[in-house]
Amino acid sequence: MTTCPLQVRTLPTAPYPDQRPGTSGLRKKVFVFQSKRNYLQNFVQSIYSSIDLLDRQGSTMVVGGDGRYFNQTAIEVIVQMAAANGVGRLVIGHHGIMSTPAVSCVIRKYKAIGGIVLTASHNPGGREGDFGIKFNTANGGPAQDAVTNRIFQISRTIEEYAICPELRVDLATLSKQTFDLENKFKPFTVEIVDSVESYANMLRNIFDFAALKELLSGENHIKIQLDAMHGVMGPYVKRILCEELGSPANSAINCVPLQDFGGQHPDPNLTHAADLVETMRGGQYDFGAAFDGDGDRNMILGKHGFFVNPSDSVAVIAANVFSIPYFQHTGVRGYARSMPTSAALDNVARATKIELYETPTGWKFFGNLMDAGKLSLCGEESFGTGSADHIREKDGLWAVLAWLSILATRKQSVEDIIKDHWQTFGRNFFTKYDYEEVDLDAAIQMMEDLELMILEKAFMGQRFAVGEKLYQVERADNFEYTDPVDGRICRNQGLRIIFTDGSRIIYRLSGTGIMGATVRVYIDSYEKDPDKIFRDPQVMLAPLVTIALKVSQLHERTGRSGPSVIT
């Protein structure tokens, strides 16, 4: 404990107009936080001020980040400001590092009023990269719109912030540190905790670790390759998969968290995890997976690089949900997917007579259903999968352990499990085209014009012929969601063109980019014919892609000749 009470200071500041949190918090280039005076302090103060004073006083909050550049600098400021704003205790991951799923877990374990997650997820790191701050509430999940709107409104009028500038915390030592503050009756406490253990203990209560250990290190064990992409998941993979479940140490690669993610883009897809894909193609490994920077996303691969589409991944987990002991005890309450995600999960829900919810993009919508006891499993096309009752974030390692549990139960390869699934439920061919860093004004104008066109009465019933394929529009809209829990309505969640055969074209502007706009185009088409379900997705979807580009004039309107990323 400090010997002399630390001074609490209130310092003047001026607001910035651009601190509206997106779907995953406030994300900007690192230089914005570094070069704009009090930019970080303003947003952190706005978070604290958004919490009622009576709730804040003496409360517990959690702080953790993915280890990217500026992480520790930001934590020092967050700690100093937490003390000055009346927070009683901060729980922080060792070295300031804690995965987003683990932050959610720790918030719930300590019954904290919330947590601050320092991450820009799958965006690049380093001095020239991105940085982000996200506020999670007491349920462990991302703050709902009412909270983020309040934070934004405070940030627009902020005039001062409170801070203890002399407070210094040791992030390198597992410890409880206490500090006396002037005019405070109780000391301020900072606990530096093992970033892995609470989360690992939660997983032990969900999965059969004995069965997983036999799968990974028993007499007939499989060989796996897991790529942490130099993000936060390295320590978790090493501790849980290697040390506890017995997978060889060399089955985990890129496990040292680096501020710049080794100069790579920590996004687990076929483009940015190309090294893992190439390794898997060699046939040496039976199962592969990659994680993003903060550990909430995952990509699953089978032997010879067999790619599991994220929409298929959540559907296969649903179809094999009782391979996971947790669900053997609790049963299944419901399934959910984000609207752009393919309808593969719908097919399982329909066959098993389990409720299916279609939500806007954003994990907070799943969280509301989870809190109401309506949801057991959910997923989204952007490589996110999660389950109810353990945390309120998507969870990359949970998804990997779910898949390994299915392999242990089914004793089949990843590819055979997927192909059996298609033969049972049919296949949703799915692809996503991302157009990144598009001129914002051009993207907005394109979306507005496209909406006007597809909502015209004449557009209904319109036919599009591409080669031998003929598609007829059944309906088109701008997706609107009414939350079944609290009745709130979320409008303008994406433009949809739905054809009579169930195929869908969806257009969205993403809320997680840093520079310009990201236009996303999603194509989803169902096929039940056994002679067609094993065909190449890009070939099967080519007619719908042609229609999507023709209707939107996306290339002409944005000046792009093609997408930045195809998944």
Produce the secondary structure layout.
Elements: E1 9-12, E2 26-29, H1 30-35, H2 39-49, H3 53-56, E3 60-65, H4 71-84, E4 89-97, H5 100-109, E5 114-118, E6 130-137, H6 145-157, E7 160-163, E8 175-179, E9 188-193, H7 197-204, H8 209-217, E10 224-227, H9 234-244, E11 252-253, H10 274-281, E12 287-291, E13 298-302, E14 306-308, H11 310-319, H12 325-330, E15 335-338, H13 344-352, E16 356-359, H14 363-371, E17 377-380, E18 384-387, H15 396-410, H16 414-425, E19 427-438, H17 440-454, E20 463-466, E21 469-478, E22 481-482, E23 489-490, E24 495-499, E25 504-509, E26 517-527, H18 537-552, H19 554-558, E27 565-566
Parallel strand pairs: 3-4, 3-5, 4-9, 10-11, 10-12, 15-16, 15-17
Antiparallel strand pairs: 1-7, 2-6, 5-6, 8-9, 12-13, 13-14, 17-18, 19-26, 19-27, 20-21, 21-24, 22-23, 24-25, 25-26
Helix pairs in contact: 2-4, 2-6, 8-15, 11-13
Subcellular location: Cytoplasm
Family: Belongs to the phosphohexose mutase family.
GO molecular function: magnesium ion binding; phosphoglucomutase activity
